[in-house]
Amino acid sequence: MRPAVEADHDAIARICLLTGASGSDATGLFCDDEAIADVYATPYLHGPGGFALVWDEGDGAVGYVLGTASTRAFQDWFVESWWPSRPPREQQTQGDRWLLPSAKDPDRMLIDAVDAFPAHLHIDLLPQAQGRGAGRSLIEAACALLAERGAPGVHLVAGKDNEGAQAFYPRVGFEPIAQDGGSVTFARRLRQA
What we know:
Elements: E1 2-3, H1 9-19, H2 35-40, E2 50-56, E3 61-68, H3 71-85, H4 94-104, E4 119-125, H5 134-148, E5 153-159, H6 163-171, E6 175-179, E7 183-189
């Protein structure tokens, strides 16, 4: 495990794409294959409070955990600066019909419990890195980093149909705090508020 560097950008985008359909390959599901990474992965290399750690087994990143210590600041930056700077995209696929409007939504990342759990993260591992402790190691490192940055808690959202994620997050200290028709929000306390 190591901090991500700019040279990891393409690998992070690729991992996001290859895991972007509830843990499966999202290639071809959106107007272009970079769209999902532009929403859920690469902004964390640039945005306020952002961080990225990669799992590298010697041939480049095969997994990552990334996120931000301040969801509110990151969300503001995302809709005001990041998303408008991306190439214009038009809805062409069914996936675009939720992804593209979601990216423009100024409240997309603001869960009801954002004040108690102001940090958020995303973790994705390619199959060759799964089941060997990489996910747990990345989560623990991310939680330690966020606690050092003063975040009292962290949250993440996982699709209900992503059975692996639904089983994994409780094993690494996250509890479900909310759900809607298609996703579950998990949270973990990092320190006393």
